[in-house]
Structure formats: C-alpha cells, structure tokens
Design a protein that fits this description.
This protein is mainly β. It has helices spanning 56-60, 94-101; strands at residues 17-26, 35-38, 45-48, 70-75, 89-93, 112-117, 121-130, 134-138, 148-157. The protein folds into 2 domains: 7-82 and 144-157, Chitinase A, domain 3; 86-138, Thrombin, subunit H.
Length: 158
C-alpha cells in the first residue's frame, strides 16, 4: 500500500483548513489601488473554510484550487461584501448619539461609530454626514459596493 502524500490531488473543499498568502486590493474609487491586507511580506494565514472568517464569495474563489496554486481574481461587489444597502444608512439625532458618547464628545465625518441597541447588540458604522441636529451613519460593511482584487498563493490544504 502506498501512503505517500500526493500534492497534485489535494484540492480545496468547503471544509478544508488552508494555509495561504493573500492580498486584497480595492479596485473601486475612491480607494482604487489601496491594499486592504497583504500577508506576502509577513506570515501566512491559516483558517478553516465555512467558518465565516472569509465572506462566502471570497471562499468560493478557493474551491477546487490545488495546493501550490498561485492566482489572481477580481470580485464584483455581489461576490465580495455585497452592494451598498441604502436602508443601512441611517439618520440619527445628535441627542441620541450623545446618550452613548457623552455631551462633550466632538463628532467628525469619518468617525467610526459604535452603538449598543436592543439586548446589548452592538453595531458599527461610519459617520458620513453631520449637522447640528442629525448624523448620517453608514452601517454597511466597509467594503460593501467595492470591486476587490484578490491575489492568493495556497501553501497547504488539510
């Protein structure tokens, strides 16, 4: 019986543990060319498929790939972190924000906002607009609506 390990027959499936290098780059304005993450100049990452560490669309690019494979893909928003959902952009009164942050807190456009709602559920958003009475906060994933470039080198599959 031959127990030798055959790299050529080791393919990624929906339950695989992977070790890989990857780089995610924004291909959309206003951050076109911005590198969001890059492990090629540091330690590789290890994760298990299907556990939510990567979005389903990103994981889909890995399925049926071989150990040792080096590839690049472009992901449209629907295949990455989704399109921007306008219903997740909310106007919230400054008085309500002050309940969470205090009366003296100074808000600025671009601030990351954290709110606690029902049952202590925490939600995170980006302050998009601000006037004396209301703030507009975007609760979409920061990469929603973005086209992403993904470069991957699969080092190991278990």
């Amino acid at each position: 019986m031959n127990n030798s390990y055959n790299r050529a027959n080791n393919f990624v499936n929906e339950n695989s543990y992977l070790t890989l290098h990857y780089r995610i780059t924004s291909l959309s304005q206003p951050r076109k060319g911005f590198i969001l993450v890059n492990t090629f100049n540091s330690s590789p990452t290890t994760f298990q498929m299907g556990t939510g560490q990567w979005s389903p669309g990103l994981e889909k690019t890995l399925l049926n790939r071989q150990e040792g494979e080096n590839f690049t893909v472009e992901l449209m928003p629907k295949d990455a972190y989704g399109e921007i959902n306008p219903s997740l952009i909310q106007k919230i009164s400054i008085s309500n924000l002050r309940k969470f942050y205090g009366k003296e807190h100074q808000f600025s456009i671009g601030d990351h906002i954290e709110l606690s709602i029902r049952n202590n559920f925490r939600c995170f958003g980006l302050l998009k607009d601000l006037d004396k009475t209301f703030a507009k906060i975007d609760f979409n994933h920061p990469l929603a609506g973005s086209i992403l470039g993904l470069k991957i080198y699969i080092l190991g599959i278990l």
